[in-house]
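Re: your question about 4-oxalocrotonate tautomerase-like domain-containing protein

S., sorry for the slow reply, the queue was backed up all week. Below is exactly what I fed in.
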Amino acid sequence: MPLLQVHLLAGRPPALKAQLVRELTEVVERVLGSSPERVSVLVTEYAEGHWNVGGEPLRLPEAARDE
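Result:
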């Protein structure tokens, strides 16, 4: 039973996250031969300031934000 974990900055539209989950599931189905019912995808979102790289907080680009 494949389990994928996706970590994202918060703020993307729900429809975009749903598309990501669907497409990741399809890839696992195609590559590993797993049935979609057995593929789990966990999406964890982090508020800006809770994910930092090189001592600086990551920022979600405006184009990727919820509207």
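DSSP finds one helix and four strands in the chain. The chain has a mean pLDDT of 94.

Happy to talk it through on Thursday.
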